[in-house]
Amino acid sequence: MKLIYLIIALSFLFPPNIFAHELPDLGDISQATITPRQEQQIGLQIMRQIRADSSYLEDPEITGYLNNLGYKLISNSSEAAPGQSFEFFALQDSTINAFALPGGFMGFNSGLIIAAQSESELAGVMAHEIAHVTQKHLARMISGQKYSMVTSLAALAIAIIAARSNPQAGQAIMIGSQASAIQSQLDFTRKHEKEADRIGLGILVDAGFDPQGMSDFFGRLQMAGRFYENGAPSYLRTHPLTYERIADIQNRTRELTYRQVPDSIDFQLVRAKLRAAEGSARKAVKLFQARLNEKRYSNEVVERYGYITALLRDKKNNQANEELAKLYSILQHTTGKRILEDHLLGETIRVENKSIQAGAMIETLAASVKLANGQIKEAFNIYRTALKVYPQHRALIHGYASALLQNQQTEAALEFVNNQLRYHNNDVNLYRLQAQSYSALGNLMLKHRAQAEVYIHQGYQDSAIDQLKIALQHDNGNFYQLSTVEARLKQLELQMAENEE
Asked: How much of the chain is in helix, strand and coil states, percent to nearest 5?
């Protein structure tokens, strides 16, 4: 399924507005008819559709990287309003696209992340999308609707369903109207695009990235569109590029001091992980193997990381273990010191490493390799040692908890998960693991209580209420636990009533 047409509808061709003859200007009238809370609710409802789709990437390392990059841009900018929330996520989709949704939700296709040739290019696209949110472009569109909010959401739902079964039909539903109305909507879009370019470039520069990254990426996409008109990158269809826009960005960057910014190892590893997930597992293995044999890479550590990831995906576990040993050997040889904990020699040596994320990703992969080969003790040693060095790395946290559960260490898993929830109380995977732990221990009330939290964080309040009611039917908790379930149920029912008003 391609979510591209949902993106078109939301970002730049919002369906109900194609009947409007008078469109709002760029003055901030967005909150005249829509509040930030309403915008957030719309975003959450759309995210329910996206999270339910198979292309949604629930990978804590990829999501973590995107959010770290996003908040680096936001924290160095004065554009974001106080209290404005943002959430960055990825889709497993080879098309080159990115999009912003109401409420600060921003999606990035794997194809776009892989296509970015530098971290500054990816940051440039992200800064552009952030600008759409901070300048309230989506809120302005919604506030200019001649239809009710419910009608708008109904139209979006129809478009999503149509696009899933027939992308062309989905597009037709969204843009099938009077030519003049569509043209005026496109004109409105170009104004927003130019504003997002200008504001986004400022965000990019303030965060310390190479400002040339934005114009380089857009220029390359524009060139691709010239040669492949029918198969042009999706980003060109959702974010119409013109020579005027490219020239404007280039003129602005010429006035700035040249800045060479090296890519983070995080960026390189995430791209390798996404490349390893493309196409069939066997084809991915062969592609990495060929690049390594022909030495067609800029960083051998990154390439071998991707190769091991592809081997695991192809169930070639023994070979993955052999390649892991080579990876550690290369790390030691190329740096002249031990970069990570040396699990291969059974030692525990804390070493210097400038990029915590890079070390954590390799450690997480190493533990997965050991588990796949039945080396449980080695895997637990890696998890426990790595968590001391990288205690905030979600993939390590999730992996260790899952490994404890899979090896019947249920009470230890529950204690670990409960402790982690004290610091990460918005982590839906931790609530999932908590529910599994309670289920294995036979505590049905707390199992359903935990499952309710899973639904709450996914935006399914009605399902969460059902889970809490089921929890109350299994009164096998103490008074305090029972009280917390009842209190949470009342809170949700009150929120549901407020949302319906």
From this structure: 70, 5, 30
